[in-house]
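Q: I'm building a small set of examples for a reading group on sequence design. Run inverse folding on the following structure and report the sequence directly after it, with nothing in between.
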């Protein structure tokens, strides 16, 4: 069994302006709010589009489940930063009930 040791001393790291670094994946997303279904759960759908505006794949579910799936299955195709930002946008879509383009 692998034993991992962590430094348990807490510290606060002050983070200043951090520049966003665009990945070169060529993907952008269309994010849609899906009206509550029969179980009363708000859902989102994300369409991943390529640079030629063609759909590559779509995912639908709760924002949290779609976010986790993208982080597990799409990191490497898009940067971790891009995937995490998509997660934020999925949650915003679910909470605000809006549709939009994220690039």
């Amino acid at each position: 069994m692998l034993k991992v040791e962590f430094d348990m001393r807490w510290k606060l790291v002050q983070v200043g302006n951090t520049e966003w670094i665009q990945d070169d994946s060529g993907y952008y997303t269309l994010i849609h709010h899906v009206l509550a279904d029969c179980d009363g759960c708000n859902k989102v759908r994300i369409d991943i589009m390529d640079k030629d505006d063609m759909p590559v794949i779509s995912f639908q579910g709760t924002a949290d489940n779609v976010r986790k799936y993208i982080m597990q299955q799409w990191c490497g195709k898009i940067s971790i930063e891009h995937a995490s930002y998509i997660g934020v946008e999925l949650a915003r879509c679910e909470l605000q009930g809006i549709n939009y383009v994220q690039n």
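The chain has a mean pLDDT of 82.
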